[in-house]
Amino acid sequence: MKSQPPLIAHVVYHFGTGGMENGLVNLINHLPPGRYRHAIVSLTGHTEFRRRIRSAEVGFYDLDKRPGHDLGWCRRLARLIEWLKPAIVHTRNLNALEAQFVAAWLRVPGRVHGEHGRDVFDLEGRNWKYNLLRRAARPLVHRYIAVSRDLARWLTDTVGVNPHKLSQIYNGVDSQRFHPRAGERPDVAPAGFFAGAQCVIGSVGRLAAVKDYPSLIRAYARARDLLPQAQGLRLILVGDGPQRAHCEALIRSLGLADSVWLAGERDDIPRLMQAMDVFVLPSLGEGISNTLLEAMATGLPVIASRVGGNPELVEEGVGGSLFPAADVERLAGLLAAYATDPGRRQREGAAARARVEAEFSLERMAAAYQSVYDDLLAYRRRQPEDGVQPAQPARRQDVGRA
Fold first, then answer.
1. What mean pLDDT comes out for the span 385-389?
2. What is the CATH number of the domain that holds 144?
3. How far apart are CA 354 and CA 357, in angstroms?
4. Is the pLDDT score of 14 beyond 70?
5. What are residue 245's phi and psi, to 5 degrees?
6. What is the 8-class DSSP label of residue 337?
7. What is the rounded CA–CA span in Å between residue 353 and residue 181?
8. Do 18 and 166 sit in the same domain of this protein?
9. Nearby residues of 347 by Cβ (< 8 Å), 6 or more positions away
10. Domain of 41?
């Protein structure tokens, strides 16, 4: 009987719309079929975003973790791991890291942890309680993956990860799905919104505190004050989240309701980006932003806060510009400058697209992850003193919950 490919259990806090989740979807969709099987284990549930995964063979398992100090999910995870028998458990970010203790206790052959960015409550990664947990898990993790050089430096310098256990792998982007518009601006906005528009500024992301969209809205209002023909300026914010009501109130208070569109969560992001002329990422913290890469692939010049991995993507003066996070006045000046210089927009947008094609393909990203997985399993098989052999993956069943 032919053996099945090794199973990777990807453990996340929640599987919904987001950059980390988008990267996981792209990875599963672009790893060679038949090389690995995949299961997604979510501590708090999943959404219809799961449908972006092409293979129907990917299992989804929810652990129903309750708010607060609920350890019942650890028992449910242990039972699930015993049943699935994964060859690798791959956790992502701090809020899934505790799963490494369960995986180590059950002696899962391969244990990988990925860092994709930090939360607004700990932008610099210096919280001593969080880092105590990270250091406690450090001996149990066989391989680390950081999506940016900034996160890789932090893992080695602050968390104390051995550089030999660490791989830095950039996210990739689908440059066929995301490409520059050909011809007229797509008519994707509410009726009349684009009438008279000369420069459309846009951003895509979750409306959460760490993304700092209020600063972008204030900078947009200030840019309109700086421009003699402010009526030609538009702003599109695509996404939803806990700060939506705050953003709506701010837009109304600044008298911007006619020129700012909160598009909500959408599944036509490529066309929405093609309707933009400039892309802005005002985050207070970032790993490597998928939406930034998608904007670059669309041929948009990007204006991004100088945080996290953003400076690794944005070549200042070549494919876009950087500004100090939360600096409304500096951002407003950049918005006004790009709005009045279509030549600059075209030149920098073309350079951004060229860089994506050269350095950030999905195939390149998938190959790098596969190399980590392959090398890890090969190494673990050569460790007889460990006493652990790669698990034989169980057959897949249609189980919705652990």
1. 41
2. 3.40.50.2000
3. 5
4. yes
5. -60, -40
6. H
7. 12
8. yes
9. none
10. 7-172+361-386
Encode pLDDT of 250-289 as tens digits: 999 999 999 999 999 998 999 999 999 999 999 999 989 9
Please name the residues in contact with 280: beta carbons below 8 A apart, sequence gap of 6 or more.
201, 202, 203, 216, 302, 303, 304, 331, 335
- Tell me the per-residue pLDDT of 84-125, one tens digit each, with 9 for 90 and over: 999 999 999 999 999 999 999 999 999 999 999 887 778 888
- Model confidence at 29, pLDDT cuts 50, 70, 90, reads very high
What is the rounded CA–CA span in Å between residue 381 and residue 60?
28
Strand partners, 238: 204, 264
Beta bridge mates, 8: 38, 88
**In contact, 213 and 237? CB cutoff 8 Å:** yes
Task: Evaluate whether 84 touches 39 at the Cβ level (below 8 Å).
Answer: yes
What is the structure's pLDDT at 396? Answer: 32
**CA 264 – CA 271 distance, rounded (Å):** 14
How far apart (Å, rounded) are the C-alpha atoms in residues 116 and 170? 10
- What tokens does 217 get? 């809205």
No. of H helices and E strands in the chain? Answer: 13, 13
Mean pLDDT of all residues belonging to the chain: 91
- Residues across the chain: 402
**Whether residue 153 sits in one domain with residue 215:** no
Note whether 292 and 309 are within 8 A (CB): no
Q: How many domains does the chain have?
A: 2
pTM over 0.90: no
Radius of gyration of the chain (CA): 22
Predicted confidence at residue 200, as pLDDT, reads: 98
Same domain, 238 and 299: yes
Spatial separation of the C-alpha atoms in residues 205 and 239, rounded to whole Å:
5
Write the single-letter amino acid at 7.
Answer: L
